[in-house]
Amino acid sequence: MRRENAGLRSERMTTIRTTCNRCGDVELTTEDVGLELTAEGGTGRYRFTCPFCSSVQRRPANTRVVSILLATGVEYEIVPTAGAITENEIRDFASALGSDDWFTELVASES
Ligand SMILES: [Zn+2]
Q1: How many domains in the chain?
Q2: C-alpha distance from residue 110 to each of 31, 93, 105 (Å)
């Protein structure tokens, strides 16, 4: 039997699951997510617009998250590090890294 949809492979939808501060678990497409990489490379932040409450949120992204997001094809930009990261963000980043399950908040899957 012919697989008529074989040609759609490159257009497959990638769903990125993360957590909105207000709404809980949300599912995003790659278009909803942007990656902000630091000049040193490897780490940075990702931002997303919640599809429910439309708030823009930013989360720290370590090398694992960065590689997941890049693999899904999200757009990224290199941001200057000097003065770009506040003490609050460093604190958030540190506490996120200290949590065992922080990375489960971000799960990319293809459907
Ligand atoms: Zn929300």
Answers
A1: 1
A2: 14, 27, 16
